[in-house]
Amino acid sequence: MSDGDAPGVVETDVAIVGAGAAGLSLAHRLARRPPGPRRPSVALVTAPPGPLRPPSRTWCFWEEGTGPYDAALTASWRRLRVRPRRGPGIEDDIDPLRYKMLRSDDFEELVGAAVARSPHTVRIEARVDTVEGVAGGAEIAGTALDGRPVRVRARWVFDSRPLGSLPAARTTLLQHFHGWFVRHDRQVFEPGTVELMDFRTPQPAHGLSFGYVLPTSRREALVEYTEFSPRVLSRDRYEAALRHYTGEVLRLGAFEVRGTESGVIPMTDAPFARQTGPSVFRIGAAGGATRPSTGYTFAAVQRQTRAVAAALAAGRRPLPPPAHSARSLAMDAVLLHGLDSGRIDGAAFFARLFARVPAERLLRFLDGRSRLYEDLSIGLRTPVLPMLRTALELPRLPRRPHPEP
Q1: 8 Å CB contact between 346 and 228
Q2: What domain of life (predicted)?
Q3: pTM of the model
Q4: Alpha-carbon span 152 to 154, nearest angstrom
Q5: Which of 98, 171, 320, 324 could bridge to 337 as Cys pair (CB 3.0-4.6 Å)?
Q6: Domain coordinates of the chain in residue numbers?
Q7: What's the CA dihedral at 137, 143, 149, 153 to 10 degrees?
Q8: What is the pLDDT of residues 82-114, one digit of tens each?
Q9: Domain 2-56+103-166+269-314 is found in CATH 3.50.50.60
């Protein structure tokens, strides 16, 4: 890390823009690398306090055994439950996997400690205005909170900021949700089991809705209402949906709401560019890490950042790999269009899958780690004729921009 020739210019091997899941994950991996001739200097450029900094949020993912972020986890589980609209719930043990809950504030604290311990890593707070290629790399121009200009020149830049608009797609649905962190006077929750999808919610005309319960103790949980649909709802409608779910479905009675959480995750078959300049790459959701069929992003971010860190250590060009296989993306595109057209009943589709496929195998499929014969076996447990009709229709659909949520 050094000052450049011009005043106020920080020079570094790697610059990471943004402190979401992808930016923090890559910074954590690089800060913890052992000393060596190829250990790069790193600048993590994050938004200053204010409207550009994202609100606290929850990331969930699954992995085998222990992981690098276990010290920051809120909770983890080995049992999942899916509830169809009618009939008993479908519950399964996902061993050797664990379903893990990580709060962004706790993750940022974990990464901040690693960055502080690393003599090769520095954190810079600035609003990023431009990222442009220069001879031998790229330069970030930004503004600090006090109005001072900030410039960072790097050999490689990894930009994890959300895109200003989505690429054109044949189908785009939004996974949008609102949740309550609740505390109850009675022991009403099962701390060993996640309610992954509870379809006993009123279903929209296109897409699906479900309740989601992450119990952190017998008295505390994150309870969310989620929809996959083309448009977000008003705050009043989310609150009404949560009141219905907690009151009429879960029958929780009186409880205290100790916090809230909202979000919108695009689920799209749009192609995402992983490189925007000779030395500038996109990572995270901006680089296509979000799984189109589920909205899960965190596990793909880990694959991307692991590959980038390995390439830097080996002295290779650190182009992030595709987050998902072409086969996975093709299957997701069919499902998305089937949900959007109303040809596929989303609640029945997912409940049927969890009823007919062991949850551990299904999670590996959703993570893109299943083999071809497993994918075919799972495909045969879906509504085959509607899926085939949708697959034949898909290539004829034009790609169109999606209006902003």
Answers
A1: yes
A2: Bacteria
A3: 0.92
A4: 6
A5: 171
A6: 2-56+103-166+269-314
A7: -10
A8: 999 999 999 999 999 999 999 999 999 999 999
A9: yes
